[in-house]
């Protein structure tokens, strides 16, 4: 089912409801900048905010959420375990620090940020404990290729609920999306707007046809493919505009045209070759 409203949710493999659409806060400065961005998003009807320990803005996210007056159970907050903190004991401590900075009683989704070789399986055991202890409502991974997921699933007691990876029309991730679907792992896109590289002839033509922006077309493409999407912006007008994707539907032909743009092109690091 394609989302019809901004607050619509997908049901994760453990029964938790996760909004299809959210605000990402990567590279959003701690303090006033991130608090304003989150406040704008919540005011526009967003109920899903995605942060990470590495973004160094968890405290600002938590402040904005508390000041919003929105009931905690109506919100979905994601944060992530950073690479330097991977390993069993260090992961547990890192989560406690993230939870303290957020100050929101619990975390809805906690992700392993990158598949650090030799450590991500111990980190996953820590996340399983946090989940079983009721400190997080769902656990998942980020930037995991198929072979990372296969390795994790060989020993995991809990199947990840989510895999959040770079995905957009130039990096369609078709095989990974199919693998996640087969294993009931919700696929989620970071950098869905290709870091602003939207000046593409086909996208511009399709946007004109629907009287939408290329960004809105790409975000609609995500939703119609069953992809959770978290575009980042700090501008109120853009945050509102990004979410105006529930009043139109791309035709099968236009979906196929966008599918055909894939170049397996990354704007971020390759999960098989990163050094941080």
How does this model look, in words?
With 276 residues, this protein is α/β, with parallel strands linked by helices. The protein has one domain (9-197, 226-233): Alpha-Beta Barrel (TIM Barrel), CATH 3.20.20. It is 38% helix and 15% strand. The chain has ten helices and ten strands. It has helices spanning 32-43, 58-68, 88-102, 120-132, 146-153, 174-182, 201-210, 214-224, 236-242, 252-259, and strands at 9-11, 17-19, 23-24, 48-50, 76-81, 107-112, 136-142, 162-166, 186-190, 228-229. The strands form two sheets. Strands 3-4-5-6-7-8-9-10 form an eight-stranded parallel sheet. A two-stranded antiparallel ribbon has the order 1-2. Strand 6 (107-112), helix 4 and strand 7 (136-142) form a beta-alpha-beta unit. Helix 7 crosses helix 8. The longest helix is centred in the middle third of the chain and has 15 residues, at 88-102. The termini are far apart. The mean pLDDT is 97.
Domain count, please report it: 1
Return the CATH architecture.
Alpha-Beta Barrel
- The percent range for helix content is 25-40%
- Beta-strand content estimate: 15-25%
Short characterization:
The protein contains ten helices and ten strands. It has 276 residues and is of the alpha/beta class. The chain has one domain: NADP-dependent oxidoreductase domain (TIM Barrel).
Key words describing this protein structure:
276 residues, alpha/beta, TIM Barrel, eight-stranded parallel sheet, two-stranded antiparallel sheet, globular
């Amino acid at each position: 089912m394609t989302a019809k409203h901004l607050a619509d949710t997908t049901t994760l493999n453990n029964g938790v409801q996760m909004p299809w659409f959210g605000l990402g806060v990567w590279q959003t400065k701690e303090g006033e900048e991130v608090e304003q961005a989150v406040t704008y998003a919540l005011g526009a009807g967003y109920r899903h905010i995605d942060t990470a320990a590495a973004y160094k803005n968890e405290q600002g996210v938590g402040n904005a959420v508390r000041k919003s007056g929105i009931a905690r159970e109506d919100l979905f907050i994601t944060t992530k375990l950073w690479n330097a903190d991977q390993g069993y004991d260090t992961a547990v401590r890192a989560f406690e620090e993230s939870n303290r900075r957020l100050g929101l009683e619990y975390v809805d989704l906690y992700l392993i940020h990158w598949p650090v070789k030799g450590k991500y399986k111990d980190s996953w055991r820590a996340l399983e404990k946090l989940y079983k202890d009721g400190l997080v409502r769902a656990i998942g991974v980020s930037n995991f290729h198929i072979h990372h997921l296969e390795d994790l699933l060989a020993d995991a007691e809990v199947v990840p609920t989510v895999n959040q990876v770079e995905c957009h029309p130039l990096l369609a991730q078709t095989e990974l999306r199919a693998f996640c679907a087969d294993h009931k792992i919700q696929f989620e896109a970071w950098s869905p707007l290709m870091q602003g590289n939207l000046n593409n002839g086909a996208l511009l033509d399709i946007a004109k046809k629907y009287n939408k922006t290329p960004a809105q077309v790409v975000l609609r493409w995500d939703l119609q493919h069953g992809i959770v999407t978290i575009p980042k912006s700090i501008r109120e007008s853009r945050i509102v505009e990004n979410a105006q994707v529930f009043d139109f539907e791309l035709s099968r032909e236009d979906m196929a045209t966008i599918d055909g743009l894939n170049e397996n092109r990354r704007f971020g690091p390759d999960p098989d070759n990163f050094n941080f």
